[in-house]
């Protein structure tokens, strides 16, 4: 396993609770849209075994052409050890990245793509939308639906409906409106539905989509293949 140590070159305060850390791109480090990486803090690999409390699985919110590795994350008032340390890091501090992989690259099969996310989960979809704007080949339309009860919506400069680009973005602040819209979107029995959020959010969305006749193979999760069965084994007697 190759570990890349790299420096923070910029910190962006997206909202009062969300920050994006822009990291220098190490030589030979590559990634694609929908990628996640493991972010390690200083000391995580000291000793016989890695200190898992100093490592987190994070989505990359940028594309390579932007010249930086973006890590976008939310900080709650009461944080884990990892988030507490990360929140106090500054430009110039080093972090480690390793085991980078994409579970959710943009599918190009001449179908509509629906991006369903909760809060900062939208960061996973930012690169997919940018990649689509760069090259729209074999994608009919992208529809993004994001729920954030605090209304601190992210990346609104990118997630803005653009009819000329066949792109629709919608933000809602409550579950009722969100799931009503998910049911409406599921009227497309041929589309691809990407979901990013907490495990509970994934299960709830899968239940709604399956209840509307959407097949498991149409649902994309940012999870390793071995993790998928637990999300699709829920009893769906809706």
UniProtKB/TrEMBL annotation:
Protein name listed in UniProt: FAD-binding FR-type domain-containing protein
InterPro entries attached to this UniProt entry: FNR_nucleotide-bd, Riboflavin_synthase-like_b-brl
Stretches assigned to coiled coil: none
Domain of life assignment: Bacteria
Gene source species: Caldibacillus thermoamylovorans
């Amino acid at each position: 396993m190759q570990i890349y140590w790299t420096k923070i070159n910029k910190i962006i305060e997206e909202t009062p609770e969300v920050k994006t850390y822009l990291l220098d791109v190490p030589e030979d480090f590559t990634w694609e849209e929908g990628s996640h990486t493991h972010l390690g803090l200083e000391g995580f690999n000291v000793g016989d075994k890695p200190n898992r409390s100093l490592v987190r699985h994070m989505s990359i919110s940028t594309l390579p052409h932007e010249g930086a590795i973006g890590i976008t994350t939310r900080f709650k008032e009461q944080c884990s050890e990892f988030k507490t340390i990360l929140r106090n890091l500054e430009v110039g501090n080093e972090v480690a990245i390793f085991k980078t992989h994409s579970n959710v690259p943009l599918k190009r099969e001449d179908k509509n793509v629906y991006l369903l996310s909760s809060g900062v989960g939208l960061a996973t979809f930012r690169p997919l939308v940018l990649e689509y704007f760069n090259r729209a080949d074999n994608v009919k339309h992208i529809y993004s639906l994001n729920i954030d009860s605090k209304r601190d919506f992210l990346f609104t400069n990118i997630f803005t409906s653009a009819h000329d680009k066949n792109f629709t973005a919608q933000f809602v602040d409550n579950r009722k409106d969100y799931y009503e819209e998910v049911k409406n979107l599921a009227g497309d029995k041929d589309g691809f539905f990407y979901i990013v959020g907490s495990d509970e959010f994934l299960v709830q969305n899968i239940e709604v989509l399956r209840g509307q006749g959407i097949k498991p193979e149409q649902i994309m999760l940012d999870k390793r293949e071995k993790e998928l069965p637990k999300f699709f084994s829920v009893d769906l007697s809706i």
